[in-house]
Write a structure and sequence with these properties.
By secondary structure, this protein is of the alpha/beta class. It contains seven helices and eleven strands.
Length: about 220
Amino acid sequence: MSTRYPTANDDERETAIEAAAQAVQQGLLVVLPTDTVYGIGADAFDDVAVQALLHAKGRGRDMPPPVLVSSATTLDALATRVQPYVDALTEAFWPGALTLVCNQQSSLVWDIGDNRGTVAIRMPDHEVALALLERTGPMAVSSANLSGLPAATEAAEAEGMLGESVAVVLDGGPSPKGDASTILDVRGERPRVLRRGALSVAAIDEVLEPLGLTVLDEID
């Protein structure tokens, strides 16, 4: 059974983040607020915890979770052969609602599912999430919902679906955006849309156009 922690003021936030950080370090699952929707997270380098995350959601290994980070500089530690335009994207949109699918560093010792040598990375624009990530390091985080159901935009919704599987629920109030992040595959010479989300393709194109690029959006 989970414990829900409010984060409305500094004292509450410190207590909540410390409880969540300890839970993650112990290999347990937590629910955390982000700038898009609530997420269910685990230590990205704890294979058992990541598998427990997938099991809690009712997902298989063929749908590996994204990895959230507290700093854009962490991307270089997790990804390799990064395209030059990625710097422009992270400078413009991180922290924010943009997930980047990159080539994974071959030296990483983790198992986040059948990711076929890739890793999806995002830096969320939420002070509670960032404070937790600063203490835990990279976390595997998927939307807080059972597979097939809408992602939770309130802590109570996430707890109702996943409370039996998580140790700590951080209550950050309603999600600011309520839409999932936009996902780009940035392994090629042009970024390609994998999922439309809270960040518009038009906004991304505004950043890329000075570089002579636009997003490849083939989603119908």
